């Protein structure tokens, strides 16, 4: 079997350092300050006149619709495309362009476009637009209401439009078509700088829409002092409220994970700590968590840590809406990174990247009893080549590995 990608080990660390308005405001369309830095390509992928192909994408995001159709989103030459497949990834429709104007879209590592579909088959996309000032970004949004034939003009979701950081977006869709978009935001640290105050990390903000993205409620803050460079994970609880988890900066410079379950779409709940790794580090690990919630309300979370007492990858579950978690299971150790989890009924799958000194591997563990017991790790793919991180997707019946090797076609692998 061909393999997805090598992962990038943790060899580099970047040193870091209100109720909604009664009026629903339209999203802001901002296309200024964009920079254009195409990625390095070879062969056909280096030809700007070549037809767009997911072969040339660095990352691919995937989701199934309610009819079992697979949809993927990817970036080629500063343009975002969407394709669908009726045969579980064996063949795809012709790519459909989302953004008519090229823009510098973040599409590597822990930052990549997101794609979700609602029960009616409407398609929603978010991504990060890189601006001309270093590390400055906006969160962008587009939708299709005609089955992916056409997409709306992209709009900017962050209503703070300073040329600062708004990044690591996360997208979730409610049972009634509500849209939830969260991201890491620098507006509070910028305000603190102007006031001569100290502020660690960034803040976690969100916006939501009840009309399919035609309008968004004003941005609200979920938490302050988040880690700056780790992906977020979002899911919808059985009571149709958002749940979000992220790497947080706790007192004393501890960078462990936190979780918030919303009371309703306007009201973030209390912040709960997921694990007690006590990883004290004044840098960003570039390893965000994974989260999946079963239909029975069990929260399944995976994450990476490198504290003196907790090293590698960990899994834990919660049966009380994230207030408490089970004793973490250390399932991936030396050379393991970027875990992803998916729960389907009582079945739970976890995949991750691991390096053995010469080969890059995707490994898998499975549970049939809501995470209480687990199979032995198995290698489901390996290669010495580079590529993307592994993700899990489901058509509602089976679980699949979704992955992309560099300058190879997208692959969907049945795991059951």
CATH topology: Neuraminidase
Q: Which percent range fits the helix content?
A: under 10%
Radius of gyration: 20 Å
Number of strands: 29
- Average pLDDT works out at 89
- Count of DSSP-assigned helices: 1
- Please report the distance between the alpha carbons of the first and last residues: 16 Å
Q: Beta fraction of the residues?
A: 35-45%
Strand-pairing-aware structural class: mainly beta
Summarize the structure.
This protein is 2% helix and 43% strand. With 416 residues, it is mainly β. The longest helix is centred in the middle third of the chain and has 8 residues.
List keywords for this structure.
1 helix, mainly beta, four-stranded antiparallel beta sheet, Neuraminidase, globular, 416 residues, single chain
Descriptive account of the structure:
The chain has 416 residues and is mainly β. The chain has a single domain, classed as Neuraminidase (6 Propeller), CATH 2.120.10.10. The chain is 2% helix and 43% strand. The protein has one helix and 29 strands. The strands form eight sheets. The chain has a four-stranded antiparallel β-sheet, with no helix packed on it. The chain is globular.
